[in-house]
Amino acid sequence: RAELVAAGHSSAEERAVYNRETVDRARLRLALVMADDAARLITEPVTPERRADLVLAFYERLEASNDKP
Asked: What is the mean pLDDT of residues 40-50?
């Protein structure tokens, strides 16, 4: 925390660093597999940025499906 203050980060930035949610490793693994499968179905080359977007989309979708009662 002292390093953040010394680097001139605002208190909002400090809170963002310390309030990050924990990554669910099992959900991340599944999202990666799903993104790889989706990338195989896409006919044009998949850039690293697009692959990251796919992983995030699947990760968030998996989280939303786990939140349903």
From this structure: 91
How far from 32 is each of 10, 15, 54, CA to CA, in Å?
A: 33, 28, 8
67, amino acid identity: D
What's the predicted TM-score (pTM) here? 0.64
Report the run of H or E that residue 60 belongs to, with start and end: helix 48-67
User: What would the 3-class secondary structure string for 1-55 be?
Assistant: CHHHHHCCCCHHHHHHHHCCCCCCHHHHHHHHHHHHHHHHHCCCCCCHHHHHHHH
The burial class, CB within 10 Å (0-12 / 13-18 / 19+), for 31 is buried
* pLDDT of res. 63: 87
